[in-house]
Amino acid sequence: MSAPAATGTSTRTGRGLWWLSPAGLLGVLIPTTVLLTGLLSDAVFRLQYRTPKSVTTETLLLVAVACLVLAGAATLAAGLARGGGTPLLLDRGVRPQLRSAARVLFWATVVGYTAFYVAGFARGLRPAQVLEILISQDNYGVSLRDYFGGVPGLTTLTQCGIAFVVVATYVLRREHDRRLAAQVVVVLLLTLLRSYVNNERLALIEVAIPAIVVLAMTARNDRRRSRRVAARFGPLALAPLLFLLFAVFEYSRSWQYFESRTDLSFLEFMVVRFAGYYATAYNNGQLQLLYADFPGRLPRDSLQAFWEAPVIAQLGLYDRLSAPVPTASDSILEQFGNPEFNNPGGVTTPFVDFGPVGGLLFMAVLGAVLGLLYRRFVDGEVVGALLYPVAFTGLLDLPRYLYWTQGRVTPALAGLLAVAYVIVRAERRERSRAAAHRRSLGQRVVAPTGGSPG
User: Is the predicted pLDDT of residue 217 greater than 50, yes or no?
Assistant: First the structure.
């Protein structure tokens, strides 16, 4: 391994990748999914998704306007952001703090997954059940979630895998480290198994996407032309890759069951199913707007991480402070939708919680934060470089749910903020020592050498 370079020299450049920016991604994702949802008829909703089409043109326009506000605020914040700050990467070598952070995050993740799987077997899960699902590839209607209930303070550490992969990817982009590469493979395999047996596809997505984002951004100025081209045209590979991942998981989750109950081919079924996750999310957002807002209701999903935080969740603080849920607002999907497609719709969530004006303000503030992080990410500044790859996952899933406010992402963000703090503190300490050394040299140069006055 090469030795770390001295502080102060960064590899930052000002140009990013259009598809990694909030405006660039939303400019493709939102019009496509909104238009698709608008074109699907009520008959298609009932036939393919077993739910009536409730979403209106007005709500789809609200989604478009809200995302336009978010993208505009992000673009404005990115343009006004000033440069500077501590660079994450140096011209030569890797900061020792990054290597140390990777080790800590890896073992934290391993502890979390050990607790996760041990808890499952302790609650009665048999290896034969897991093998049966893996061999039969039939996971529809089969839920092992009850076995994998959380162990307070331990299973939460599985989410440190997100932070680990971000840090490890930066390190591996600079130096060859077989042990670290093997650790990345271990985390990916642990996550893959969890996402499969626990029907938790998001667990794999939220680990893989940040790594892809880091690889793309660090490759945009690579010496190899092939890597620069790959980074620039990343969506051409990323979109089919996501669809392929979806199809692989959906094969066992639904196709094995519906194969004998549909006239569609496998590819047609997967396309319809994939579109359905977005279309029904907008549809569910409409249902939330109609039935989830009632007098005395406190904002919930937009502040989910707060309400699900330790102690607050144990105290049941939300249920104590918020008004009781009316009958019409209880089990909305069971009454008006299809629980199988349970994505609540991320864009409409702030409007359910805060109303029309509050929802737009929420999106504007969110856009400003994302824009600032993106600018710092492009510049290679430590906080943006560490946090934005995780934030990008939320942009990708915004039509389906509000990822950033879920409690599951809190451990990853906390871990990355801790890494950023350690790096910034070490950088400042090094600069202070360097400044003190320069002052010491200066005093020696100007020290008087003559004799005493006569």
Answer: yes
